[in-house]
Design brief:
CATH architecture: Up-down Bundle
Order of helices and strands: HHHHHHHHHHHHH
Strand content: under 5%
Distance between the termini: 12 Å
CATH superfamily: Cytochrome c oxidase-like, subunit I domain
Largest sheet: none
Helix content: over 70%
Number of strands: 0
Oligomer: single chain
Number of helices: 13
CATH topology: Cytochrome C Oxidase, Chain A
Shape: globular
Number of domains: 1
CATH class: Mainly Alpha
Structural class: mainly alpha
Length: 389
């Protein structure tokens, strides 16, 4: 299969991220604000959270790893029929979850659970064969998959708490990925850009602080599994917020404030300490304004990092200069505006809160619509330099 959209791993999955961003959140917002029924028999809030994690975020993870692993291992990129099949498995999972009222529970679960093992199987051989240092990422995929298994088990038992906690664990694993991978690429890209401008030695990355931040994020995940909502979880979130904030300051992102393709990575990472601090305030002091801490971490940190990485990777791997279309800068700002609106909406009474949900969803959808407007042609056509991929 020679279709350009399946010529490299990031292409179909970044398109999937954009499309699911435009569709999934507005569907949820219309249901929440206007009580329009969904075609799923899952609890609506759980469907929304599940699809954002195992649909939207999982597609972004797939696109990144299917592009990064060939670079890490020096192997040929994933393309053609395997990529078509993997994309079809992801899409079928979304359709099954979104129309679950029409299908047996077991069928929906099997279809939805097929994607992450299929992705891991595709990635495992080059990573293991080359004994690559990033091979442990396969265990992250396994942990995410086990979280999805626990989610479906919770649905089957009508145990909404188990389903909810499995989703929170999955979100924490994604935040750990951002801490590791985002914490690697953000200072690296920043230092490279500053070096081209003749600025050396500005960006720092103390190894001890990196280890501390990663360790604390592991503890955040562990406490949310073992003692969710506890004071201990609050104190660990507070410690992680301080470590993540100190780590971000080291990278001195203000030096690249005129380059959106770089400052977006710093902005995404900034949402990590902000979200963790809000979580600490919510758990330790029950501050009402901090109640939407989870959306600071998901809409703020996760979605913003996804958008920042997708826009850069798509340009670099299609042979285009790292020049950002002005509309994409607007998309960056719209995602953070969506996060802020969602957080501030927690202060409002019920009618205002529903309006804030709708506005946040509209801002979010607009951001990913802009992404698709600019990047769908890039992702679905051949490389600008005529090379394969």
């Amino acid at each position: 299969m020679k279709t350009a959209a399946f010529a490299y791993g990031f292409r179909p999955f970044f398109l999937g991220v954009g499309l699911s961003g435009v569709v999934l959140v507005p569907l949820w917002a219309v249901h929440f604000s206007f009580r329009v029924p969904l075609a799923t028999d899952w609890p609506p809030m759980l469907w929304h959270a599940h699809e954002m994690l195992f649909g939207f975020v999982a597609a972004a993870i797939a696109g990144f790893l299917l592009t990064a692993v060939p670079s890490w291992t020096g192997q040929r990129g994933f393309a053609g029929v395997p990529l078509v099949l993997l994309s079809a498995i992801w899409l079928l999972g979304r359709l099954a979850a979104g129309t679950s009222v029409s299908w047996p529970f077991a069928l929906v679960a099997v279809v939805d659970l097929a994607f992450l093992p299929a992705l891991a199987a595709l990635l495992a051989w080059p990573l293991v064969r080359e004994r690559n240092r990033n091979t442990p990422l396969l265990f992250v995929l396994l942990a995410l998959w086990l979280g999805n298994v626990a989610f479906h088990l919770g649905l089957w038992r009508n145990d909404t708490e188990l389903a909810r906690q499995s989703l929170l664990a999955g979100i924490n694993l994604v935040l750990l990925l951002i801490t590791v991978i985002g914490g690697r690429i953000t200072p690296s890209f920043t230092a490279t850009a500053l070096r081209r401008r003749g600025i050396e030695g500005v960006v720092r990355a103390a190894r001890g602080l990196t280890v501390l931040a990663v360790t604390l994020m592991i503890l955040v995940t562990a406490t949310d599994v073992a003692w969710p909502g506890s004071a201990l979880a609050g104190w660990i979130a507070a410690a992680a917020a301080v470590a993540q904030g100190a780590r971000l300051v080291q990278w001195q992102g203000w030096h690249v404030r005129s380059e959106p393709i770089l400052w977006i990575l710093h902005l995404a990472y900034l949402w990590l300490p902000v979200g963790l601090a809000l979580k600490a305030l919510s758990l330790l002091a029950a501050v009402p304004a901090a109640a939407s801490w989870l959306h600071a971490l998901t809409v703020g940190a996760i979605a913003t990092m996804i958008l920042g990485v997708m826009t850069r990777v798509s340009l670099g791997h299609t042979g285009r200069p790292l020049y950002l279309h002005p509309l994409v800068t607007g998309a960056y700002l719209l995602v953070s505006a969506a996060a802020l609106t969602r957080i501030l909406g927690a202060w409002l009474p019920v009618p205002g809160y529903a309006a804030a949900i709708a506005l946040s969803a509209a801002l979010w959808a607009a951001a990913f619509a802009l992404f698709l407007w600019v990047y769908a042609p890039i992702l679905s056509t051949r490389r600008a330099d005529g090379k394969s991929g």
